Structure formats: C-alpha cells, structure tokens
Amino acid sequence: MRVSDQVVQKLQALIEQRNLKQGDRLPAERVLATSLGISRPSLREAIQQLNSLGVLASRRGDGTYIVHLPETWPQQHIVEPISLLLEEDPQYRFDVQESRLILEGGTAWYAAQRATEQDRAKIHQYFDEIAQHQARGDSAAAAVADANFHLAIAEASHNAVLIQMMRSLFDLLQYNVFLGRKKVYNHPVSADLLSDQHFQVMDAIDRQDAQAARDAVCGHIEFVIHQVRALDEDDARQKRATRLNRIDSA
C-alpha cells in the first residue's frame, strides 16, 4: 500500500476519533502531521487524494474542510488478489493492459475537456521525470513516474469514480508498468517511440482534443501489449533453440 493510502487511513481514524462532521475544518497541517506522526509532504498527498474524491476541500489561506464523509473510504481491496494472480501467471498482465485500455481511454477523454492549468502542469512534471530517470537508467524510478503520469491524467478527468478506480489500482499499475518497461524500454527504438506516445497524449490534453487524447493513450497501451507479446515470443524461441542445441551437442 502506498504511503498516501496509509495516511488516508490515519486521517479516517482521526476524523472518527474526534467525531468530526461535514463542514468541520481539519487541524492545521503542521499540527495534523505531528499528531499523525507523518511528514507534511505525505499528508499533503493524502489530502490531495481526498480532495480529488470530494471528501475534503482545501481553501487557500483558510484550511481544509470536510465536504463529505463516505460510508466506504478509499481502500486498496483490488490490488492484492490481482497481484497474486500476476505472480502465479505473468500472462495476467495482459488482462491488466486490456483493462487499462477501457479505463484510461475514458480518463484521457475527460482530462482533455476538464484539465486545469495545474492539472496540465502536473502531467508535464511527470513526463519530464520519466525522461530524467530513464536517462539515468533508473528503471524503478521511471516506472513510478510513468504510473504517476497516467494517474495524473486520471485526476485531471475530475471524475471521482474514475479517479478512485485508478488510485485503487495504482500499485498494480506501477508493477505492470515496471514489467513492461523492463522489456520494452531496453530497446532504444521502442524507448523513443514510447516517449513520443506519452508526448502525444499530453499534447492532446493540452490542446483539449478529447478524441485525440483517447486515441493516443489507447494507441500507447496497445503498442506496449504488442511489443511485450513479441518480445515474449522471441524469448521463447531463443529458449527452444538453446534446448535444441543442447540436445544436438549431447
């Protein structure tokens, strides 16, 4: 579970312990971080998460207020069971990719129509981070930035249900991205193409072209599916050839 999700749970517990209601203001950030025993950046990320879901509302210069207390708080119930499936059979990662086609096609569509200047700046930030980590050869950090890039697009959709679905799948998305990057990004041509695909998604959102944004993100995911399948087939052929050579030389 991500740190921000752990902080969300701590915030939930604090709200319930203090019997806070809709319309109440949360304690100041410094006080809240100290009482929860967490860092202020982690607290801000959790508050932003709950802002996106309509649970909290932060007012500049005034504080953070409770807007809605959900019966069921955001939790990561889906990730662990599917992660187990991925460990048992890597082919399940293609099910994840197909699910992303449906979910992210929608988030990109709405992001192009609804993204604010702040949303677009966040998407650009993660796009730059991907390139920086990739240039240093840090695949793990690049995978985190890559997953955050897609999550930032979902947040820019300003659709609470889509955002919650993407957040609940964040760890799984990050793991899936990492698996894909291990294979695809090791090939220089593919790495350049993937970077360009990310740019096309971002550019379509900047231009507020919903259809182009949907087409770009779906094209990107379909490309990754095709490339990973092709690389898997190449690996399988090489293993078969190695086994045959061993038999012939025996």
From TrEMBL:
The keyword Hydrolase does not apply. It holds the Pfam family GntR. PROSITE patterns: HTH_GNTR. InterPro entries: GntR_C (IPR011711), TF_FadR/GntR_C (IPR008920), Tscrpt_reg_HTH_GntR (IPR000524), WH-like_DNA-bd_sf (IPR036388), WH_DNA-bd_sf (IPR036390). Residues 1-69 form the HTH gntR-type domain. It comes from the Bacteria. The keyword Transcription regulation applies. NCBIfam families: PRK10421.1. This is HTH gntR-type domain-containing protein. The lineage of its organism: Bacteria, Pseudomonadati, Pseudomonadota, Gammaproteobacteria, Moraxellales.
